[in-house]
Specification:
About 30% of the residues lie in helices and about 25% in strands. With about 500 residues, it is of the alpha+beta class. The chain has two domains: about 150 residues, Beta Barrel (OB fold (Dihydrolipoamide Acetyltransferase, E2P)), CATH 2.40.50.140; about 260 residues, BirA Bifunctional Protein, domain 2 (2-Layer Sandwich). The protein binds one RNA strand of 76 nucleotides through helix 1, helix 2, strand 1, strand 2 and strand 3.
Length: about 500
RNA sequence: GAGGCUGUAGCUCAGUUGGCAGAGCAACGGACUUUUAAUCCGUAGGUCCUGGGUUCGAGUCCCAGCAGCCUCACCA
């Protein structure tokens, strides 16, 4: 209250001190500044939907001849104060819950002496509840005319700029809670992510797939070409890896008779961070006995189209300002076809590949030709695939877990789905020949270190195959990337609530 | 891991050739019973990311470091 006490304080501390003072005033009035149970309030969206109940009652035209004031329904709301306009003996508050915003009208006369005193203690960012009449102001703004104000929680820290919110991308990620409150469309984006995930589960469930939870601690980090995080179990005194894929355990379940099985969960890869990569991300893997990669292609389309429907979007949407058309069937083209189309070179012509590799400055020393070819593909072709396009039939030598095309052992029955230059899905006709599998595991691909190879020997997995895994199709979908596409997000950090950041130095 | 950009009040941002550290919002005091980013008068608020260096003088120039973003590499 006194200026002298603030002279010693600076910046943010002064802002907090002002809020603390109001907190103490509330306590002095016998009001708990941290609130408590507050029942039977309606979502603001539902309250706004009742605006058609506002009206003049029949026979309301009074004896005075003046038109009767329209009456509105009594409502109860709760939310965060995001805007405040004080005009003498009136206060307008805009409160926000996770369904919307609405204006509150607080009049000194209308809320009474105590209510008015409470209102003086409200800051931006506080949580309040209100009982009042839903009606309109003179200017027509839908408003709850407060009869009673309930103080629910004090915010000691001030909110960011009331309209712009947080702009610094680092702060938006570290202080995601503030980004959710104040960021334009941020809460909606993450709720949409939840709807997409729910839709995926629903689609698979409706087709008879069962969801399971495999181990995240693996003795052998297999199923993908990625470097794992390592950890240690003290009691067993063994090093373990965080899983980099779901694949090998789901296939064991296929052996065990789970004919349609999936897991939707987090995997961890100890690799770089980029607008498309986070060290932990959400992966869906689906396995269907007696299917193949074509079965999986059709399933992929259904899963994605249902997710689009679940988010209330049209099949024709835009991403980053560019049109994107999900009308099925998605384009299907072979790896070699696309290679030729986008490089102008014959993928079977070793000299042409060599020239391309030279042009791109690739290190070809001791590498298998297919590895070089794939590096060219990744650099020259993938980013041009706006898609959605299914890329079919990969070189077998880069696919150690995949069944070969019958009569063409150099081709693997694999597809990847590319959309906007991103790999969104990856699927195989699964290899179920235990001896070939063991052979591929033990054979290091020329030019690839063990870290870079998908082929880490997993003897227990080979043993499982020896008991007979049904022929099957397997599918992986990068959920974060799918969410990026369906929320028009340009970076993966926009769709992960708490992406990995370096810890703050002093925190 | 390499290169580029960014870091100034609680938040959003200016800051000229190197010459007293600025604005809007938020806060505090005052006026106002229908506001809409309310308005009006006044007050306070700074580790200019950190550490060195050049200079009479550094937010500004140089070096190193930290963090974030972008591009590339790795990867999905």
């Amino acid at each position: 209250m006194t200026n002298s006490s603030q002279d010693e304080r600076t910046g943010g501390a002064a802002l907090e001190a002002a809020r603390r003072e109001k907190l103490h005033k509330l306590e002095a009035m016998g009001i708990d500044p941290w609130g408590g149970r507050f029942d039977s309030h309606a979502p603001i969206r539902a309250i706004r939907a009742r605006q058609n109940e506002i009206g003049v009652e029949p026979g309301g035209e009074g004896a005075t001849g003046k038109p009767a004031r329209p009456r509105g329904p009594k409502v109860r709301a709760a939310g965060r104060v995001v805007l405040q306009r004080k005009t003498g003996k009136l206060i307008f508050l805009d409160i926000q819950d996770w369904t919307g915003r609405i204006q509150l009208f607080l009049g000194k006369k209308q809320v009474g002496e105590e209510g008015w005193a409470v209102a003086q203690c409200v800051d931006l960012g506080d949580l309040v509840g209100v009982d009042g009449e839903l009606n309109r102001t003179r200017t027509g703004e839908l408003t709850i005319f407060a009869e009673r104000l309930h103080f629910l929680t004090k915010a000691l820290a001030p909110p960011p700029a009331k309209h712009k919110g947080l702009q610094d991308p680092e702060l938006r990620q570290r202080l995601r809670y503030l980004d959710l409150i104040h960021g334009e469309g941020v809460l909606e984006r993450f709720l949409r992510r939840t709807r997409i995930v729910q839709s995926v589960r629903q689609t698979l469930g409706a087709e008879g797939f069962v969801e399971v939870e495999g181990p995240t601690l693996h003795a052998v980090a297999g199923g993908a070409a990625a470097r794992p995080f390592t950890t240690h179990h003290n009691a067993l005194d063994i090093d373990l890896y965080l899983r980099i894929a779901l694949e090998l355990h789901l296939k064991r379940l296929l052996v065990g008779g789970m004919e349609r099985v999936y897991e939707l969960g987090r995997v961890y890869r100890n690799e770089g961070i980029s607008p498309r990569h986070n060290p932990e991300f959400t992966m869906l893997e689906v396995y269907q006995a007696y299917g193949n990669y074509e079965t999986m292609m059709e399933l992929t389309e259904r899963v994605i189209l249902e997710a689009i429907r679940a988010t209330g979007q049209d099949r024709k949407l835009t991403w980053g300002g560019k049109p994107l058309d999900f009308t099925p069937p998605f384009e299907r083209a072979t790896y070699d076809e696309l290679f030729a189309r986008h490089t102008g070179a014959d993928p079977a012509d070793a000299d042409a590949l060599g020239a391309l590799a030279m042009e791109l400055g690739l290190d070809t020393q001791g590498k298998h030709p297919d590895v070089i070819k794939n590096e060219i593909f990744e650099q020259k072709v993938e980013n041009r695939l706006t898609g959605p396009v299914f890329v079919l039939d990969y070189p077998a030598s880069i696919c150690p877990l995949t069944k070969r095309k019958s009569g063409r052992p150099e081709i693997a029955e694999r597809f990847e789905l590319f959309i906007c230059g991103m790999e969104v899905a990856n699927a195989y006709t699964e290899l179920n020949d235990p001896e070939l599998q063991e052979n591929l595991f033990s054979r290091q691909l020329a030019g690839l270190s063990e870290d870079d190879s998908m082929a880490r020997m997993d003897r227990d997995f080979v043993r499982a195959l020896r008991h007979g895994m049904p022929p099957a199709g397997g599918l992986g979908i990068g959920i974060d990337r799918l969410v990026m596409l369906l929320t028009d997000s340009q970076t993966i950090r926009e769709v992960i609530l708490f992406p990995l950041l370096r810890p703050e130095a002093d925190a």
